[in-house]
# Entry
Amino acid sequence: MIQHLLLCLTATLLLSSCALARREPLPKLVQAPGATQSLQQCTALFPQGRWQLVHAIAFRMSNGSSGNAIGVLVLDDLEIKCALMTVEGLTLFEARSADEEDLEILRALPPFANREFAAGLMRDVRTLFRPPPGAAQSGTLPDGTPICRYAYGHAVTDILPQEDGCWRMHTYSEQTSLRTDGCLPADPRREQLKTRTIKAQSCSPVASAIFPHSLELIGSGPTGYTLNLRLISAERLPAR
# Structure
């Protein structure tokens, strides 16, 4: 049973950039007053300094598979250390990363002994707890919702800093537009389409940072997945 759940979790994290089930194009950014204030709100969502966070993780695949794990995360300036454990306390995976190119796997039991898994996991962790890369703009969506938009290469991240009393994040990447039946059209084109959504709820301050009590990461597509993170503890670590 445990082996089955581990395989499902591996598949979940490896599918973080799967094809889209529903086309949701990048919405238009409307310039609005108060841009500086919105950018400050978005920047404040990401913890600064050294922190240790512990989360209970529940995952669910579109095929109905599900399972649970414990995640321990250490944020140390640019470096991120991440460990996954069973609820019984066995460390399944441990790695550190300073950026997309720098990845050191410290421990990985099968089926986690896979560099693609490690890269996908650290990418998701970085998305959750580090500011998006790229130039930042602020404004509103066409319906008036305040957002901060970060553009980096062909990727775009929108942060809604005042959503549901906490915040929400949408990521978009350049995809080939498909027909509703999933097939390529006669004249395929590339467009920015939503790849995942992160919903944060029950935000509360801890020391100088703001942490959501729960995070939900939803990956789009027919092989979609959902990760639910429930904060167990957030501890500020002494400066080096």
Notes: The longest strand covers residues 190-206. The mean pLDDT is 83. The two ends are 42 Å apart (CA to CA). Residues 2-14+21-228 form a domain with the outer membrane lipoprotein receptor (LolB), chain A fold (CATH 2.50.20).
